[in-house]
Design goal:
Chain lengths: ~350, ~325
């Protein structure tokens, strides 16, 4: 502060004291949340490419991508939610709730699967809205609120299925009207160069593009960063905090519905006890992808890479002929490594 | 906003005109249940002036600005904006009338880029609904222009605002309030958590805001900071006005004395002498205010060039 006060309007182009230097290119690149994950993905890919010969085939890549997409589609909104400063522990069982709803509504009430599909969408969005509403109303941490809905949904999945079907799984709906259409939308394959790629892979990448656009190029995206980064500041400048968070929970509901439909139309029936534990896979994908657990920082692309790493490790272990028991161990190592890298990256980004 | 208020008028012209003040409090009081936090407070804020509100902890400064900013309603007296009595229900209403408040810790989202922070909650967009998107180029242009008009030059508007210094962050928040139509700007202890140099940055932008025609209410418990930019000084004590004086009616040492509370200082002196055997001759004599503390602060100010705002002041009152 060596210059004297500058008369307003006549501020010179160079006011030495007030000037900040432009951050160097490497530092600006490092400031991107997904950089750490990208390096990690490359390392994991090269590793399995070297140790597991079947991993090198295009068919295997298609399998890895399918595995990644079923986690990645939900990991996307979970990442946005985490940027917005909240968790959703109910997302894993919500996928099954959605599939069960579609299946049982179709079976019990009509003979057309589309009715069930739409009712399931409404139910899934409703669960998301309920999570968001409870959070805003009670002021409890989302960890607790969604732990509650997680347990409730888990119980409902089992109890209602048993009540209606007398079984732990739903009856097959493969002979109903619209099954073929719905399967084409949610669970078909597309041949590319002789390799069958599941349609969810394309949906996943499409959703990722939309999520990225929303996050970086729209008002709502700005609000997501703000409510997660400093909720009180956001509120004081007029950002609708409650609305933003409820919308985020509903987008998780939407993704849970989509993956639920994929499961239903892939296998015709749904096991009511499944889905438990997947909520952590979504969160892990988001964290490996550079989302900050405390909110306010992260990206949709990062969540895509995080889910891809997950898919590579799951399938890579199989292709390498290892005991799959090692999988969780690897996942834990990667989670810790990613968290440390992200911490370091963020320090670099905000360093003065 | 610059077309509704004379941007670069000398304060005398604005101040002495018949136009009603931007903000006026007449005998305002505020009770929290049984606690009478504020009573009988008069305050006048005119365009292109800096009104400093000073006082020790618990004097009622925060209560006063909460009333002015619409966070609380006064329980006695009158609150006038542009000469008309008002009763504000929330900060949004105050903002709608051009009264903006910059809170020290509520100003920004640290991890977001400067330009996103600047427009947060009032983003500019383009395009029809399903593809309505942020008009990033325009926002960056406007943000850069507004910051430059306040004398803040940043080369990289993409840097997270958390990487700016505390003073710069406050200054961006001030520029933001000015851009979104503030006519009166309330700053709650903007320099309290800042070092000498950073305080200088903020004081400079307070002066710049005044030059742009704003009426500034500057809350502080530092008489040196107040005296560098202030046109009028109001000292609160136990919820009521202890002193209200224009700049030419009061000197810095008198202001410091009022702040410290002459009688209390004498009592403290006595106590210290009893408890720890402090040499009371070393302590400032009543009624003179702490001369060495004052000299110290002035020396520090000079060394850091924070005399800047003062020079601006001299310039425009001359
Ligand atoms: N919300 C409140 N409820 C009850 N008493 C309050 C409240 N806010 C402030 N007070 C009281 O009002 C007095 C003035 O406080 P405040 O305006 O915060 O002073 P300052 O900002 O000058 O330190 C204090 O005695 C404080 O205890
Ligand atoms: Mg206070």
């Amino acid at each position: 502060m060596t210059e004297t006060a500058v008369p307003p309007g006549k501020a010179p182009a160079t006011a030495p004291g007030a000037r900040t230097t432009r951050r160097s290119l490497p530092r600006r690149v490092l400031a991107r949340p997904e950089v750490g994950a990208l390096i990690g993905a490359l390392a994991v890919y090269l590793f399995f490419f070297a140790v597991a010969p079947p991993f090198r085939q295009m068919d295997s890549l298609a399998t890895v991508l399918y595995q990644s997409s079923t986690i990645g589609i939900v990991a996307l909104p979970v990442a946005l939610l985490m940027i917005g400063g909240e968790f959703d522990l109910s997302a894993g069982v919500a996928v099954i709730t959605s599939a069960l709803t579609a299946s049982m509504v179709s079976w019990q009430l009509t003979q057309n699967v589309w009715v069930g599909v739409l009712v399931a969408l409404a139910v899934s969005l409703g669960i998301g809205a309920l999570n968001g509403f409870l959070l805003m109303r009670t002021g409890l941490p989302s960890f607790l609120v969604t732990l509650g809905t997680f347990l409730m949904l888990q119980g409902l999945n089992l109890a209602v299925t048993k009540l209606l079907t007398g079984n732990v799984a739903t009856d097959s709906i493969s002979d109903m009207d619209g099954f073929g259409q719905a399967k084409a939308v949610f669970a078909s394959s597309v041949g590319i160069d002789g390799v069958q790629v599941k349609v969810t892979v394309f949906w996943w990448l499409g959703f990722a593009a939309i999520a990225t656009w929303v996050l970086l190029r729209t008002k709502f995206g700005n609000w997501i960063f703000a409510v997660g980064g400093n909720r009180d500041s956001a509120r004081s400048v007029g950002v609708p905090v409650g609305l933003t968070k409820i919308a985020l929970f509903m987008s998780v509901g939407f993704a849970a519905w989509f993956v639920g439909m994929n499961q239903l139309f892939s296998f015709d029936t749904v096991q009511s006890g499944e889905g438990v534990g997947n909520e952590f896979l979504y969160i892990i994908a988001a964290v490996i992808g550079g989302c900050l657990l405390t909110g306010g920082y992260g990206s949709a692309v990062g969540a895509v890479i995080g889910a891809f790493i997950f898919g590579m490790v799951t399938q890579g272990i199989v292709y390498a002929n290892w005991n799959p028991d090692w999988f969780k161990f690897f996942l834990g190592v990667m989670l810790l490594a990613a968290t440390l890298v992200n911490l370091w990256v963020r320090r670099q980004a905000t360093r003065r | 906003m610059s077309d509704t208020t004379p941007a670069f008028c000398a304060p005398e012209l604005v101040g002495s005109s018949a136009a009603p003040p931007l903000v006026e409090l007449r005998g305002v009081g505020k009770s929290y249940g049984n606690v009478r936090a504020l009573h009988g407070v008069d305050l006048v804020v005119r365009p292109s002036t800096v009104t400093c509100v000073l006082g020790d902890n618990g004097a009622g400064k925060s209560t006063l600005i909460k009333v002015v900013s619409g966070l609380h309603q006064h329980t006695e007296g009158e609150y006038l904006i542009d000469g008309a009595p008002v009763r504000l229900n929330n900060p949004r209403e105050a903002l709608g009338r051009g009264i903006a408040t910059v809170y020290q810790d509520l100003a920004t989202v640290p991890l977001m880029p400067v330009w996103r922070n600047f427009f947060l909650g009032s983003e500019l967009t383009r395009g029809p609904w399903p593809v309505r998107r942020l008009d990033i180029a325009r926002m960056k242009r406007v943000c850069d222009g507004e910051l430059r008009a306040m004398g803040i030059v940043l080369d990289d508007l993409e840097q997270p605002i958390g990487s700016l210094s505390g003073g710069q962050r406050q200054s961006v928040a001030i520029a933001r309030a000015v851009h979104f139509g503030a006519r009166a700007l309330i700053l709650d202890e903007p320099t309290a958590a800042l070092g000498v140099k950073q305080s200088g940055v903020v004081l400079k932008y307070i002066a710049a805001a005044r030059e742009r025609g704003l009426g500034v209410i500057f809350i502080t418990h530092n008489p040196h900071h107040a005296y560098m930019v202030g046109d009028h000084f109001t000292v609160l004590r136990l919820g009521t006005v202890e002193l209200s004086a224009a700049r030419d009616e009061i000197a810095l040492d008198q202001l410091t004395h009022h702040m410290a509370g002459g009688a209390e200082l004498a009592a403290l002196k006595h106590e210290l002498a009893q408890v720890r055997g402090v040499d009371t001759d070393e302590l400032p004599k009543d009624p003179d205010a702490a001369p060495e503390a004052q000299a110290e602060a002035e020396a520090a100010d000079e060394a850091d060039g924070t005399g800047g705002p003062d020079e601006t002041r001299e310039e425009h009152t001359a």
